[in-house]
Structures are given as structure tokens and as C-alpha cells.
Amino acid sequence: MSVLSKPYMHDEAASFAHVESIIWADGPVCPHCGVVDRAYKLEGVRTKPSKKNPEGKVRHGLWKCRECRSQFTVRKGTIFEDSHIEMHKWLQAIGVCQSSCPPISCGVSDFRGADFGFWVKPDGSGRLPVAGFA
Ligand SMILES: [Zn+2]
Q: What are the extents of the domains in the chain?
């Protein structure tokens, strides 16, 4: 089975669940206060309505910390944080690069407490996580 045919490559909710399972092996980690596994998932939250999305878009992977009451997603603190590109499209790009692009460099890094494979982006501006996508 090709990596591109996996559900997390096409479904936004599944892509968040997949990345969460890699980064948060011990439960969600609040990026604001650092507490582990003390957050609950917020379901059915939508963005503000817009002309393109009159009912707002579903906010996938949204969590709320029981300690500091802050909201966050697994994207916080990663290269995905400031991107408007959907997570499953990021995973598709990473999956394609894994099979076709020569990496500039790679290695294993301690990423929020978990071993996490990465490639350094060609322009050196960040790292692309790759562990667990095969
Ligand atoms: Zn917190």
C-alpha cells in the first residue's frame, strides 16, 4: 500500500490524529504551560464565517488545557504553525519528498520529548518531520 493512500493523507481530522500520535505519544502537551495529558479536545468548533466559507471552517485538532485554559493544536511550535496549508496536504508533500527528493540532511532530534525524524529544509529555514509517515 502506498503511503499516499493512507487515510491521513486525504482526511484532515485523520491527519491531525496521526501527527498527534507521533508528537504527543504520552498525551497532548500544552504549548503554553507545558502540562502533559491535561487537555480535552474541542469538537465542532468553526472559524468565523467568510465569503468563501459562509458557515466557517471546522477547526480540526483543537484542544483546551485544563490548567491554563488556553487553546492549541499540535501545529503549535512546529513548521506547520504559521501555514494556512491543510495538514493532510503537508503530509502528502512530505510523503512525496520521502520517496523522490534527496534530503539535504536528516537525523533524529528530541522533539518535545519524543524521538522525531527530520529533514532540514533546503533553504535551512526549518525542519520537516518525517518519522512515522512510512
Ligand atoms: Zn496549559
A: 3-129
